[in-house]
Amino acid sequence: KRFYLDVKENQRGRFIKIAEISADGRKNQILMTFSTAALFSQNLIQFIDFYRDLDSLDPENLRQGELKSEVMYKDDKKYHMDLKENARGRFLKVSETFTRGYSRFQVFIPADGMGEFQHNLGELIDEYDNGDAEEALSAPQNKHLRIENKNFYFDIKRNQQGRYMSISEVKGNFRNSILVPESGWESFRDVLDDYVKQVKEGD
Questions:
Q1: Fewer CB within 10 Å, N- or C-terminus of the chain?
Q2: Which stretch of DSSP H or E encloses residue 169?
């Protein structure tokens, strides 16, 4: 396999394209903003440390499912990192999915190549980042809640007016969002706390 890491730019900003080319010429790729790539790189270090502490692969006693997993939520995308093993060895499956719709893209990185991959990714981030990656590592991490048959995503973002929280309700292809400026977070929380308290007292 060959892997290509390319820095691209469009109207929404800079992003990194990760492409995997197999021996028969098949191509898989995923896209990450610099803020996502920074979090991915940070998680990758933890996966590398975990992998180094594993016992040697036993083809006669393969472990089913994931050895280690992590999920990242960024904007309208979800990224899965799954360390797995099969008879040919251990590998990291990285999947990019959209919270709306069911498109899924993925690449497979051999586990013994994660270190070199993380090193090259880190160099690209250091060289081309315009501040998004550094801010993403210091900002609160995005959260996801599933309540009954609905998904809610909490994203911290920033624009010219300052920092704000985007709360999105996603069900199938339906998405509805509200934006709460940072100055109103405590008031927003107080209203929720008050409703929870009233309902509990009523019960």
A1: C
A2: strand 162-171
Find all residues with CB under 8 Å of 161, minimum gap 6, and list them. 181
Report the C-alpha gap between 103 and 78 in whole angstroms.
Answer: 11
Whether the Cβ atoms of residue 111 and residue 51 lie closer than 8 Å to each other? yes
pLDDT tens digits for range 134-159: 666 566 677 888 888 788 888 887 77
Alpha helices in the chain (DSSP H): 34-52, 114-128, 132-138, 185-202
Mean pLDDT, range 10-29, rounded to an integer: 88
Q: Which of 26-35, 87-96, 101-110, 193-202 has the lowest mean pLDDT?
A: 101-110
182-197 pLDDT, tens digit per residue, is 999 999 999 999 989 8
Q: Which residues of 35-66 are buried (b: 16+ CB within 10 A; e: fewer)?
A: bbbbbbbebbeebbeebeeeeeeeeeeeeeee
Q: What share of the chain is helix, strand, coil (3-state, %, to 5)?
A: 30, 45, 25
